[in-house]
Amino acid sequence: MTEQPLMIVSSSPHLHDKSSTANIMWHVSLALVPATLWGIYLFGLYSLVIILVSIGSAVLAEFLLGKLSKECTIWDGSAFLTGLLVGLNMTPSVPLFIPIVASIFAIFVAKWTFGGLGANWANPALSGRIFVFFSFTTYMSSFTTPRTLLKAMPDALGGATPLGFVKTAIASGSSGMTSNELLAQAGYPATELARKLCAVLGINAYTIDSFLGNIAGSIGEVSSILLLIGGIYLLIRKIITWHIPVTYLLSSAVLTWIFGGLPAGLGMFHGAFFPSMLSGGLMFGALFMATDYVTSPLSSKGKAVFGIGCGFFTFLFRTFGSMPEAVSVSILMMNIITPTIDRYIRPRKFGDKKLFAKKEAVA
Amino acid sequence: MHAVPTFRKGGVHPPDHKVFSREQEIVRLPLPSELVVALSQHMGAPAKPLKAKGDTVERGEKIGESVGFISADVHSPVNGTIKEIKTVTLPNSVQCDAFVITVDEKQPGNASKPIAWRKLKKEELFASIKEHGIVGLGGATFPAHVKFTVPRDKKVEYFVVNGVECEPYLTSDYRLMMEKGKETLEGILIAAKILEAEKIIVGVELNKQDAIDHLKEIVKEKGWPIEVVGLKVKYPQGDEKQLLKAAINREIPSGKLPLDVGAVVSNIGTCYAIYEAIVYKKSLYERIISVTGEGIVNPKNILAPIGTKVSDLLEFCGGLQGDVEKLVSGGPMMGFAFFDTETPVTKGSSGILALHARKKVRRTPCISCGKCVDACPIGLMPTLLYKHITNLNYEVAMNSLSLLDCKECGSCSYVCPAHLPLVHTFKTGKKMGRKK
């Protein structure tokens, strides 16, 4: 025999499905591209600057913190993704220091202080967003009118999101009207396309606009359809499972349908669940924030419970709380409960003895 | 059309890589000049050596005697002389004594008259199996006579034969079914007679459709009471727990044996060995080994004597090619990597693989994606086990996370995007946990 090459000895298995952490992070980032491009188109180039600044500061923070522990972790893509998520969660007109603060908070406080990738209990991007939302509420809640509605938007409504507007209207005492009626009464504009589709399909024009992405909102959250495309891409690549998005959207929709009409004086089963599902970042949160691996449960059953919990909190805060868009806080609430879910909701073990004890007792 | 049976929870779909040796007919290895026959080729206590240095041995002669309840006899594969007794390290890192046998140039012929086994009594058949050192050839090498000892209060409703061969690369069972189908099925009948089994089921994965058809044809022609079932391709279906769930939809309780749900599972190769032992009085001293992988010049399915050195097998297959990084004994999911080509093959060696270097991916911390939880066929939480074991919390891992239920099938490590050494950690954890 010829000279034998040196062999590697390692434990089984000797095959791998070729996935990697970095691969997953880059795929999630890729799935966000359509929604990102739409946001930039809708709100102008300044949005691009915001996104780039968020990503840059997140990656830089990760790099500098990596110096402390003498490892370079920026290529695993997690800091890039965090930065991108932070950027997409900014309102289109924030001063640039806000995304910087948010990204640094996300990477440093939410992630590194708990031990870096995989050890954080709260979704870093969400924490960053919530931190700046409560620190700079004025900036974070003044929205820009999207390009597609610019001409028709009455001055009085400038920069209001549909959800925010309805919330304010209900708070100031108007009752007996659905959210779409309220919007119509105030002259909230709809795009030409939406009005045409409305005539054909009979679906409310505002609902169509929220689905297509012609509403005010944070840069990345406005277009439900583009977010769905990204989400479906992740589902096909088996990066996320259906459990969290589906249970989250369904539970919040059902609860909103049943109880959502109460504050507006409409009674039960009159909640506008479609507008609620399609706006205020719910789609974004359900597909990209709640499905964050580190801060969501491990098992499928646990994920379903997590999704339902998110849906419940979102409904609760939106309907009875003071916040019109409560997605980020809801997910954060469930992040807190995740370790408990993992402790008590586990897959059924193959050949579980309890099962057999029961069967024998029956026999 | 009803659904194709498989087990439900977990499992993975590695590419099957069987193309290398799938179409290679079984060939007999020209006798090497020297064999190294290990005394611990089976699960349980090593056999006691019956020969000393300088003794001559004959083919089929017992050279190691089983000691204790779980143990098996070892036989000489050739006529030859014991050159020495030395300590060898087998791929599964078992260290034991081994006979180094210098092979005589003249070997006895193969002529032997078949025995009409149907006339033999159950007890005679059982005694033969023990005498000929039959062990499970799927890889676990559990002594067959121990497995076939059915306690009085237990009944074998099902004898399930494992022709799944779910490990990628390996094709020895497939070739056996294709080339020795009739003999193997007869072996199954013999085993079923010993067990007094009521029903016989042969489970084969659907990537071996031609083998299923072939076996079904023979069964139909002979009118034998054997059911051949095609199973959906999914790893680790060759594990007895998953196989029983797939084939007869019964679930072995944690920590129990197939007999507890009225079944016995045997590998299809074992059944062929039983056939040869009973009908031709041939002890288990040779087996079919798939020598395959992208690093082998001419992959082959080889009938080789136990104790053949890997270097002889590689040479017969034209040697190694390309950037070979690992030699593996067994399949790529559960097999053992080894580095010394002087290592001998044992009764459990279903394959020798030469694998090319694979792209190195940096290990990251666990990102809690839960893919391992979804992949685990037993319903464990591999990532939590990993965290507890690496934090030396062996007790939590053993008790509340059921570490001992882990079969080390490798599904979790296979899918882990963080490339954590999960199975490795569990192996360590079991050892450390048991020590305490």
Characteristic terms for this protein:
heterodimer, A: 363 residues, mainly alpha, 0% strand, globular, B: 436 residues, alpha/beta, Rossmann fold, six-stranded mixed sheet, four-stranded antiparallel sheet, 13 helices, 20% strand
What can you tell me about this protein's structure?
The complex is a heterodimer of chains A (363) and B (436). Chain A has 363 residues and is mainly α. Helix content of chain A is 60%, strand content 0%. In chain A, α10 (192-201) packs across α11 (205-212) and α16 (300-320) packs antiparallel against α17. Chain B has 436 residues and is α/β, with parallel strands linked by helices. Chain B is globular. Chains A and B meet through α1 and α18 of A and α8, β15, β16, α9 and α12 of B.
Specify the number of helices of chain B: 13
Estimate what percentage of residues of chain B fall within beta strands.
15-25%
Largest sheet of chain A: none
Derived from helix and strand composition plus strand pairing, the structural class of chain A reads mainly alpha
Task: Supply the CATH superfamily name of the domain at 116-279 in chain B.
Answer: NADH-ubiquinone oxidoreductase 51kDa subunit
- Span between termini of chain B: 53 Å
Compute the average pLDDT of chain A.
Answer: 88
